[in-house]
Every structure is written in C-alpha cells, then in structure tokens.
Amino acid sequence: KETFPAFFFLRDEETFRVTGPDRPIPASVGGEAVLPCRLSPRMSAEKMEVRWFRSKFSTVVHVYRDGQDQDGDQIPEYLGRTEFLKDNIAIGKISLRIHNIRPSDDGQYTCFFQSGDVYEEALLELQVAALGSSPAISVEGHQDGGIRVACRSSRWYPEPKMLWRDLQGEVLPSASEKISPEADGLFQTESSIVIRAESNQKMTCCVRTPRLNQDRESEISIAGQCPPKLHRDRLRWSQFRVTGPDRPIPASVGGEAVLPCRLSPRMSAEKMEVRWFRSKFSTVVHVYRDGQDQDGDQIPEYLGRTEFLKDNIAIGKISLRIHNIRPSDDGQYTCFFQSGDVYEEALLELQVAALGSSPAISVEGHQDGGIRVACRSSRWYPEPKMLWRDLQGEVLPSASEKISPEADGLFQTESSIVIRAESNQKMTCCVRTPRLNQDRESEISIAGQCPPKLHRDRLRWCRHGWRVFKIESSHYWPEPLRCHRGGFWGGQSRHMLRALSSKGPITCIGCPQSCICLG
C-alpha cells in the first residue's frame, strides 16, 4: 500500500477572518468589560463554535457550541462571571461580557471561531486598572539630620508609581520605596523622603496609574526649622485642572502621534507655559512659553520632530504632534501647564508598535530523532511573542526561543520545533503583538511517510523510507511535480532540486535522511 507525501503550507486565504478592537479594552476592578469580535465578511456564526480563551486553547473563558453556551468547559476563575452577547450573531458580530472584573483578568484573550475544518482567531487585550486610595502622609522621626516623612497608598492596579516632586516638577530622590501585593491581587505602595532644615518649598507625594489617566496626591508645605505642615489626602487646590486621553494613544513606527490635553474649566492658555516632558521636568519634549515655541529647551531626540497645535489655545485645548515615531518614543509623557505660581499636569501614555515581517520557515536539519524546523520574523515592536500551536490551539513546546534587539530599537524573534514521525496534524507558527491586534503566521501540515517507490516525476531523489515534507506557497500544484538536479545547498552534499509546474516554481531539497520541499 502506497502513502503520499505530507505537506507544509503557508495559509493564503480562508473563508472568513476574525477581527477585534484595534486597541486595548479598559476595565476597572469590580466593574465589567465587553470583549467584542466579528467575522469578515458578514456571515452567520449560529452554527459555529465560538471560544474565548487565555494563553492556551484549554484555558476556556467561555464557549458557545451547538447553539448554546457550554458552561462545563469553563475554567473555575470565570464560572458565573461571563455572558455571551449574541443579538447580532446572524451577521457574525458577538461579544463576551465579563462581570466583577478582577486583577487576574488583565491580559490577552483569544476570540476563536471554527466552522468545520476552517478556523480563525483574533487577539484582544484587556487592561484592568484600579484607582487606589489617596496617599496618607506621616512623620516617622529623625534621620540623617532631617525629618523622615512617609507616604502610603493602597488598592492600586497595576503596580503604581509613587513620586516626590518639588514646586518646579523635578522628581526628588526618595529615601526608600516599596510596592507590596495585597491578598486580592491589588498593590500597596509606600515611599519616604528626608526633609532637611534648608528646605523651604512645597513637596508633592503623587501616586499614579496611566491606565486611568488619574493620580492621587498630597502636598507638604515646608518652612524653616518648624515641623512640616502636612496637607493630607488632598488633591491640589488650583484654579484649573489638566486632563488628557483616558486610554493609551496608539502609534506606529515611522508614523505620527498626537498627544492632546486641555484645561478645565475652559480658559486661555496663551500666556501660560505649556510643557511636555518624559520622566523628569528637564527631559523636555516640547515647550511653549512667552507666546512661542522654545526649541532650544528640547532634548536632542525630539529636535525637528514635534509640532505644537494651538488652534484652540484660547479655550485651553492644545496638542503635540510627534513625527517619524521611533521605538524610543514609547511610554509616558507629562503635559504640564503653569500660570504664575499655579501649575497642574496630566499623564499620557504613548503606545508605539510595529507589525513585523511574515514568519519565514526553514529546515535546519536533524535533531533528537526528528527534523528541526525554525521560524523567524523581524521588525517588531514591542518584543513580540512567537508561538507554535496545534490544530486544537494548544501551545506546543519549542526547542529554542530567542528575541534579539535590532539597531534601531525594533526586535527580531526566532523559535524552532522538532517534528517527529508520529506527528499527524497542522502546526502554526504565529508571531503577534496585541498593541496592533494583528499577527503574522505560517502553517505546517504534517502527515505520513514517503511511498516506498516514488514516481520518477515526483521528488525522485527521495529514497525508500525517507520522510517527505513540503512547504507550499500560496499556489497549489494539483499535477505531479517535475524535479531535476539544480546544484548543492549550504555547501554540503545535499542535492538541490528545482520542481517546476504550470503554476510556478518551488524548491526541493534532498538530504541523507529526508526530502524537503520549500515554497
């Protein structure tokens, strides 16, 4: 009985695609979140399986199958907390509502549709946050010729950042810092600072989370030798507030981003100082002062790349446009307004991303009784995740994994897997970044052994007992392949064959233990 070669192929086009939100979904601890996804083109999903899972296909958040919810498949953490919203299932639009959000719900989710043997999925990211308590300031005693003052706050998620700042907004060095997990997954934080006699200014203890674009603050007024006068649990009493976007601002490498902020209540900012800075007040991205841009104050990384948008400055609405986005632009920015002695600021987060190259699969040789196959992809930001999955979506163990930085701040990644004779399934090499809600993938189909005798027009350099693998491009060759000798591969005694058909060429490689065809 003859068997026929197995196939590796790159997936070209499916019956449908699955898409989700193009940015992270915000949620607050104790609240609820809706995770939407849809089919393209529009079609009914009533007879499909629809599944949400976490890192593995078997870590089931919710499953809809055979026209109903399959609650028995859920992992315990989500029992009784999910609701399948299917009002628009007839046109392929569905959502999952998660109730009573917990810190552990934070992270990535996969929305998976399957109809027969055809399946597709989309990656979603849920960003959970909790705004903690107002910071409590207490005097701890004397230290190093000054008075040690501590600031504490609890019930935050994710881990918050606590800072001490002076009147000019400069970050002051703390004497100690500590972040501790609480029993339910939230965090508490504390920091202390030593106040000395020469201090004569206001200091602010600020705790913040960029996910909510909010912070909690308390101020300390210090004068002479007197003990510090503490203003506890108080947000600054100012003539205005500064607000920015309530979620991260997405941007692509090489593109541009707009960072908006505004005053509340509405008022003119024409005579104010408006400043964007990074971690410190002096790391200036852009400054507007005395009615004009102050380019000389910028740090070199932003020279020539920023543009102050002030069409609505008379009502306190301004923006900063950053051109030619770089990976190093990723992260937090502070938008700062000052009028006389009164100042306020808002924290913004820029999330930079780059969608890398399609993964390239190559055969590396023999290892541990199988064939080692590698997958490589480059030009990603931030660090991507490369996974091998089987047909059921389960993550397969890789033989090696590596992520390397490129010169311009992007990343390349590679992973390998060992394919053995008992393999009889599809495998997918997938590289993904949740920031763009997109991934790149290639598929491998593995089945069977070579026939004992191959027709001379089919990979005739393969011998009895050799396994056959074929990586196929987007074309399909229904007719037999005609192979001929084409030289050597890798400088070793491995025959390179060129297989031709009416649809186009593929390359076949014959090795001592195997015969490999690369599309």
Rg estimate, integer Å: 29 Å
β-sheet strand percentage: over 45%
Q: Quick one: CATH class of the largest domain?
A: Mainly Beta
**Between the first and last Cα atoms, what is the distance in angstroms?**
28 Å
Structural class category: mainly beta
Number of domains: 5
Mean pLDDT: 78
**How would you name the oligomeric state of the polypeptide chains in this document?**
single chain
Number of strands: 43
- Helix amount: under 10%
The named CATH superfamily of the largest domain = Immunoglobulins
Q: Sum up the overall morphology in one term.
A: globular
CATH architecture of the largest domain: Sandwich
Largest sheet: 10 strands, mixed
Secondary structure tally, helices = 0
How is the largest sheet built, in terms of strand order?
A: 34-33-37-38-1-39-43-42-41-40
CATH topology of the largest domain: Immunoglobulin-like
Low-pLDDT residue spans: 1-14, 224-238, 448-519
GO cellular component, one term: external side of plasma membrane
Protein name: Ig-like domain-containing protein
Pfam families: C2-set_3, V-set
Subcellular location: Membrane
